[in-house]
Known about the structure:
Radius of gyration: 22 Å
Mean pLDDT: 84
Low-confidence stretches: 1-31
Number of strands: 13
Shape: globular
Distance between the termini: 70 Å
Strand order of the largest sheet: 3-4-2-5-6-1-7
Number of helices: 13
Largest sheet: 7 strands, parallel
CATH class of the largest domain: Alpha Beta
Amino acid sequence: MQKSFRPGAQRRTSFAPHKRRGGNRQGKQPKALHHSKFVNKAVEPEIEEVYVPTHSFHDFGLNERTTATLDYLGFTAPSPIQDQCIPPAIEGKDVIGLANTGTGKTAAFLLPIIQRLHENRTPMTALILAPTRELAQQIDDEFRRFAAGQKLYSTLVVGGANMGRQIQQIERGPHIVIGTPGRITDLIERRVLRFQSTSVFVLDEADRMCDMGFVRDIKRIASELPMDRQTLCFSATMTSDVKSIVEEFMVDPITVSVVKNATNDHIEQEVLHASDKEQKVDMLIELLSKPDFEKVIVFGETKFGVQRLSDRLNKSGLSSAAIHGNKSQSQRLRALKSFKAGDVNVLVATDVAARGLDIPNVSHVINFDPPKVYEEYVHRIGRTGRAGNRGHAITFVVGQNPAER
C-alpha cells in the first residue's frame, strides 16, 4: 500500500525561522461584543434528510479483525465523512475532509491507518496532530478501540504530561504518534522524534490549530517528514491559513465536504445582567441548583478564575470539576471522565474545552465570562443542542440592564 511519488508533484520545504506560538498573531485587541449577540429565541431543529451511505464497513476492504471489532462496537452504517473519505484514504490519496465536530471523522482517518499497518507494521508509520490534549487523548482512545487485538501501539505526546515517560514510549517504536504541535516540536528539537519512516500525516481540527497560533509549529513538523507521504487534513472550515497548509503540504487532494451550516438557531440564548462579580456568582449558584440544569459547562476567561469558581461551587454543595491550563493532563482527563459519567454535574472550563471534545447531552452552556470574539461564542455554545436536540446558552453581562435605564 506504499504510495508512489507522483512525477511533477513537489512539496515546498522552505520555512520561515521557527518561533514559539501563542497570543494574537496580529497583536490586535478585539472589541468587546455587544450583549445583543448573545440573545436568540430558539426554534425547533430542522428535520435532516437521512444520509444513505454507498458503502458498509465490510465494503472498504478492511482486514477481518478490524471489521469484527467494528461489528462488536455496533458500527453498522458509515457516517457521510466516513463513507466518502475512507475509500480514497485507503487508496493512499491525499484527502481534505471538511466536517463538523461529532460527525465521525476520527474513524475516517484511523481505519485507513490501521489497514496500512495491517499490511506493513513499520514503526512511526503515522503522525496525527490535534489542537488540544483532550482531543489527542480521544483519538488515542479510539485508535486503541479500533485496533484491539492487532498488536498495534500508539504513543500520546502532549504537554502537561511526563516528558520522560513519553520519550521512553517513543524509544520503543510505536506504530503511530498522536500529539499536540507544541510538544511534538519540542521533542523534534531535542532530537528524540524522527519521522524518516512516516508515510501518513494527519491534521485534525486544522482550523482550530491555526486559530491557536500553531501554523509555524505545523510547518516545522512537516519539514521533518518524508516528501513522499500521504496527508489527511480535517477541518470544519477552510480558512486562509488552512488553505495555505493544504496548498503547501498536499498533492492532488480529494476534497470531501459534509459541513452543515451551524446557525445555532435551535439553541435558546439569553443574557442575564449582574451588578458585579459577586452577584454573578450568586446567580450562577441559583441557576445550577435548578433540576433542569442537569449537565452544564460553565466557561470562564482565566485559569485562575475558573479554578476559584469551581472551588466556590463545590463549597456551595454543587458538584463541579475544572479544566484549564494549570491542570496536568491526568487531572484534566479525570475531570472530563467525571463529567461525562455524571459524577459531577458542572464542568468549569477555559476555552480549551470549547471545541473538539465529544461530550454528549450537555443541557446548558453558561458564559460566566463573555468570550472576546463571536467565533469563540459559537464554539462554546455548540457544546449544547447536539444530535438534533434543543440547547440552552446563558451569558452573564456585568452592568445595568438596558431595559431598566
